[in-house]
Fold:
Amino acid sequence: MKKRGIFICIEGLDGSGKTTHAHRLVRHLQEKGFDAVYTTEPSRGELGKFIRGTILEAKKRVPRVVEAFLFAVDRVEHFEKEVKPALKEGKIVVSDRCVYSSLAYQGAAGLDLEWIEKINRFALPPDLAIYIDVPPEVVVKRIRRKKSVMERLETQRRVKEVYMKFVDNGKLVPIDGDRKKAEVEQNILKLILEFLQNKA
Ligand code: TYD
Structure:
């Protein structure tokens, strides 16, 4: 039987560089001969497109609970259609956001963390989750385009507070993201390679 793959998740505030780093990590892993794939939440499926196109573009205000459910359902679809098949083939899946985004963002919006965890219990927890740590003041400056509600400084501060709870309890591994891009990139790769070595 083929060995099950590895599920890695990259987390961070909007503008923390997580998408760039997730892509670069996949490329580095591929160059080293690993079969790695990039995925993202919200997903590239129909529900993910709906979430991006309506809620995130602030075209529609939906109740926070509805929003949390939508992210959770999209996460199940992402897992069933993309993550699970890739893991079955023994691949390394690098997911740009996962359940910790719901905990951080919907938690920062005032929803109970235990309840968020409960509605997300169908989503597989990642084998390793990284938090790219960049101060909220820095990410807000980095985001030049018109800020959506989610991107305002106060929101980012609250989101970071929740992320730090999971750094403190050891679920998220922090990486200092307030450094040169190449340095952050190397630190992430080093961490992942060490993790893969220990797993082997
Ligand atoms: P982001 O990765 O920044 O998307 P893009 O690639 O379009 O820049 O994520 C989109 C937004 O969705 C971000 O502000 C965080 C939010 N989000 C949640 O609030 N809950 C979730 O569960 C997820 C996955 C994302």
The chain has a mean pLDDT of 93. The beta strands are 6-12, 36-40, 92-96, 128-133, 173-176.
